[in-house]
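Record type: monomer structure entry
Structure origin: computed from sequence
Chain ID: A
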Amino acid sequence: MVNLQGPIPRGDLVPSGIVGLLGTQGPTARTDIARALGLSPATVTQVTKDLIARGLIEELESVPSKGGRPSRLLGLVRDAGVALGAKVTADHVAVVTVELDGTVRSSTEIEYDPGAGDALERLGQILAKQVAELDDTLLGVGVGVPGAVDSQASGVVDAPTLGWQAARVGPVLRAAIGTPVLVDNDVNTLAAAERLYGIGRDHSSYLVVTIGRGIGCGIVVDGGIYRGANGGAGEIGHIPVWPSAAEEPPCTCGSTGCLEAHIGAAGLLRTARSRGAVGPRGTMATLLRAATSGEVSAQEVFGDAGSMLGRALAGVIHTVDPEVVVLMGEGVDGWEFWETGFEPSFRRSLLPARKAVSVVVEPWTEIQWARGAASLVLSSPFDSAGNGGEQSRLVRARLGAG
């Protein structure tokens, strides 16, 4: 069992931290709770007694101990609360309801135009309707967006792909929904989910890299998501990988020569069409089918993209020095073809001391984006750094109050 965020101080973090730990890690003995959260056994005994009385947690079966009487496991009462997660895209909003243990209870997609004049108000209406249909205790709403967010707590967004500049997403949604709302970059939300339910339970420093429409990176250092000075850390898709020139494919950021412009979905299709691997109207699905059926030109498009990704990612490894890299996103469906170029390029570009860094490729579904957004809420019990500000405190108050 790993320490999710270092010692938990006194105050609202203690009861909500215990409930959150049981939600993310399952039935746990009091001694292990104390060790994981940096609390004294006496504090854990006192707080869990109150949580049991309020019906948030319960005692389960006994397990053998190394000495003395058997330990009693504590478990979460399933109706302790849920989080709503929303992933905003260029044409729809994916919304999920997630329990404390990470189980996705329901999911839906709603058509959405982020470029409309009333886009934020419309988003508020969509989420308010989803909240109104819930029968459970709602802890809060997490929102993931493809852009830079000044902070999870305030939720002011710059997202060129959505046409948003200084968009006041957090304030507008809080007014519309009436619940705590936390907002962050969508790849950061995936990193938050990994911290609670995935690789982050065994590693304190890691990268979550997404390939698909764009190329993104969530950076976790010492158990916390690194967001940078203005919330824009991890934009590796805009690493220059080619000399900027007029004939270069344009990037969504307005520049040329960016990694994403070459190996994001649009860049891959541009290359595939120019090489005749797909027709003028070919899609990513067409390209993947061609590669799967043995078309060498299609396989080479992916392989070359993998090689370029490998070189760029090696530079990130040298900068951040993570324990492990997690690859996710829509593009991993074709990873077997990316990998032929990625592995030799990546390993060859690494310093000798970094060549053994692990790369884990996780299966992908669209729901993971929205589940990641919900993890912003479910991470609140461990937010001793105060990244979620008042919004995380409100979540913890709801959780601790039962």
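Annotation 1: Residues 296-320 form the longest helix (25 residues).
Annotation 2: The chain is about 40% helix and 20% strand.
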